[in-house]
Amino acid sequence: MKLAVSGKGGVGKTLVAGILARMFAKDGVKVLAIDNDSAMNLSYTLGIDEKTKENIIPIKEMKSMIEKRTLVKGGGPGVYNINPEVADIPDRYKVSGPDGLQLLVLGGIEEPATGCLCPENALIRTLLYNLFVKRDEVIIVDFEAGIEHLGRGTAKGIDLMLVITEPSQKSLDLCKKIIDLSKKLGVINIYLIANKITDESQTEIINQKIKNWEVPLYHSIPFDPNIAKADLEGKSPIDFNSNSKGILSIKNLYEKLKKLKKELFDI
Ligand SMILES: Nc1ncnc2c1ncn2[C@@H]1O[C@H](COP(=O)(O)OP(=O)(O)OP(=O)(O)O)[C@@H](O)[C@H]1O
Ligand SMILES: [Mg+2]
Question: What is the position in ligand 1's atom list of the atom closest to the CA of 39?
C-alpha cells in the first residue's frame, strides 16, 4: 500500500505520517517512510537515533550522484535526462529506524511555479514514481504543504491520500484544493482527517462546512499536549507517551486503515 499525507503547513502531516509508519512497523509490516518535505523533520517523529540522523544526506543534495544520472552524453549545460535510472536509490540510501522501519530522505521539490526544471526535481519525481509503482512495501510519504509538484504519473501510484486539516477555514480551503487536484491526478481513495481538535463542537462545524464535499471526515485526532512536549524534547511522540490521547487516536486511525487495506487490496 502506498500512502501519502498532505495538508496545509503545520497541521500535523509529519505527525500522522511518522506515527502511522511506526504502527505498521510495530505490526511487523515492511515499511519505507519517505520524507519529501524541504524541512526534513520526519526522522524526529519516527524516532531515528541521533547518530543515524546526523549522517543522513537528502537525495536532493547528492549533487554529483544526480549529475551523473541525469547527464546527457555530449549535451551542454541545461541538457539533461529527465528519466534517470533510480531503481537502486531507495535501497542504497535508506536508513534504519525503530521497529525495523526504514527511512529515505528526499528533500523537497521546488514549486513548478519557480520554473525550475532542474535535474534534482526530475530525479526526485522519477524516484517518487518508482517508489509508488515498483516497490512492494508499505510506503508512507510525508509531503510538502501543497501537492502542486505532483504529476499525473507520480500521483497515480498513490493508493491512499490522507488530507489533514486543523479546525480552521484556511486549512479546510487548502484541503479542498488538494482533494480536487488529487482527483484530477487520478487518486481514487482520499480521506480527510481533522487534527488538533479541542472539543466536539469543532468536529461538528467541520462536518457542517464539508457537507457538500464528496470526501467526508474520516477521523478526528484530539489536541494533545504530550505531542507538543515530545516535540520540545526532540523525541517521537510514540516513545514519549504511547498512551496519550493523540497517539491512541492515531492508533484507532491505524486500525481503520488496516481494515481498509484489506478491503481494497487483499481480495
Ligand atoms: N494533535 C496534536 N496535538 C498537539 N500538538 C500537535 C498535534 N498535532 C501536531 N502538533 C504539533 O503541531 C506542530 C506541527 O505538527 P507537524 O510537524 O506534524 O505538522 P506538519 O503539517 O508536518 O508541518 P509542516 O508543514 O511544517 O511540515 C508540531 O509542533 C506538533 O508537535
Ligand atoms: Mg511536516
Answer: 27
